[in-house]
Amino acid sequence: MARRTLYWASLALSPVVVVLRFGFAEKGSLVFVLAAVALAPLAFLIGEATENVAEHTGPGIGGFLNASFGNAPELIIALFAIGDSLPNVVRGSIAGSVVSTALLVLGGAMALAEPGEIDRRSVSLQISIVVLVVLLFLVPSIPGWHGDPDRHSLYVASLPVAAILLVVYLLVTVRNLRTHSASERAPAAVDAWPLRKAVGVLGLATLATALVSEALVHSLDAFGEALGLSQFFVAAVIVALVGNAAEQGGAVVIARRGNVRLGAEIAISSSTQVAAFVAPVVAIASSLIGRGLPLAFRPIEIGAMAVAATVVVLVTIDGRTRRWEGLLLLAIYALVVVAFALSGDR
Q1: Is 117 helix (H, G, I), strand (E, B) or coil?
Q2: What is d(CA 28, CA 195) in angstroms, rounded to the nearest whole number?
Q3: Is residue 213 a contact partner of residue 96, using CB atoms and an 8 Å limit?
Q4: Which residues lie across from 117 on neighbouring strands?
C-alpha cells in the first residue's frame, strides 16, 4: 500500500514540472532534478500499459507500440534542438539513443530477468536494419570528418540516405507486424486491462513524458555547466537517456516481471526505430524548421553504433538470454560512456 501511494505521489511531479517550465519559464537545476525523478514513474506506467496492450496483440506488436510511444520524446527533443540550431546535440542524442537502447536497456533486461527465449527472427531482422543504417550513415559522415560537417552538400547527400532508410523501415515494419498479427494473437488474461484503456493510458503517459523531457532538456545547459560536462557528452548520454526514458524503464520492468521476450523486443525495436525512422525524419524535417541537418556523424558515434549492433547480434544469435550476457552488454555500455566523456566536442 505504501509503495502504491509513493508511486501515485511521484506521478504528481509531472504537472509540477510542466507548471515550472511552461508557467514560470524555469530551466535551472531544480527543474532538471524534478524532471528526472518524474520520468521514473512515467516509465513504470508506460511499461504497465504496454504489458496490457501486449496481452491483446502479442509481444511483437506490443514492443513496436512501446518503442513508438517511447520514442516520441526523442523526436520532439530533436526538433526542438534543430530549432535552437544545435545540430551536434541532435546527432549526439540519436547516436546515444541507438547505443543506449541496444546495450543498456537490452543488457538491463537480460541481467535482471530469468534466462529465457526471445524472438530470434524478429530481433535478427531489426538489428540487421541497424547495421544497414550505420553503413548508410558513412555516406555523408566520411566527408564530414574533414571540413564543416554541417555544410549544405552533406545535407543533400543525406536526403537519399534518409529516403532509403524510411522505405526500408516501413516495409520491414509492415511485414513484421503482419507476421506477429498472424502468429501471436491469443486470448488476453482475465485481469488484463481492456485494449482501449491500455492504449489510452499509454498515450497519456507518453504525452506527459514528452512534456517532462522537454523541460528537462531545456534545463540541461545549466546542469551540464555546473558539472563541467561537454555538450557532446550531455547529448549522447544524458539527452539520449532522457529522450528514451519511457521505453528504457518499461523494457527493464517488463523483463524483470518475467516477460524477457517482450523486454528484448522493446529494446531492439526502440534502437531500430531511432536509427531508421527518427534520424531520417528529423533530417528531412530539419529544412522546414531551420537549417538542414546532415546525417554526418563523428567517428566516435559511428564506431559506438557499430559496436552496439555487433555485440547485440552475438548475444542474441541463439535466441536465448542469459544474465552474464546482460552484464556484458552493461559493461560495454559503460566503456562507451567513458569514450564519449573522453572524446569531448568537435
Answers
A1: strand
A2: 39
A3: no
A4: 320
What type of residue is 317?
A: I
Helix (H, G, I), strand (E, B) or coil at 190: coil
| CA 74/CA 240 separation, integer angstroms | 8
Q: Which residues contact 240 (CB under 8 A, 6 or more apart)?
A: 92, 93, 95, 96, 97, 99, 100
- 3 state SS of 289: helix
Burial of residue 4, with CB atoms counted within 10 A of its CB: 0-12 exposed, 13-18 middle, 19 or more buried = exposed
Phi/psi of residue 320, nearest 5 degrees: -130, 155
Which residues in 131-159 are b (16+ Cβ under 10 Å) and which e? bbbbebbebbbebbeeeebbeeebbebbb
- Phi and psi at residue 192, in whole multiples of 5°? -70, 150
pLDDT one-digit tens code per residue, 37-85 = 888 788 778 877 877 887 777 666 766 676 667 677 778 778 878 877 8
Radius of gyration of the chain, Cα coordinates, nearest whole angstrom: 19
2-343 CATH choice from 1.10.3720.10, 1.20.1420.30, 3.10.310.10, 3.40.50.150 = 1.20.1420.30
Residues contacting residue 221 through CB under 8 Å, at least 6 positions apart: 27
Per-residue pLDDT tens digits for 286-332:
988 878 999 999 999 999 999 999 999 999 998 898 999 999 999 99
Amino acid in the structure at residue 256: R
Helix (H, G, I), strand (E, B) or coil at 108: helix
C-alpha count within 13 angstroms, C-beta hemisphere, residue 18: 12
Q: What is the dihedral of CA 280, 79, 297, 265, to 10 degrees?
A: -60
Amino acid at 330: L
pLDDT at 205 over 90: no
d(CA 255, CA 107): 11
> What is the model's pTM?
0.83
User: Mind listing the pLDDT tens digit for each residue in 239-287?
Assistant: 888 777 766 777 888 888 888 888 888 888 889 989 999 999 999 999 8
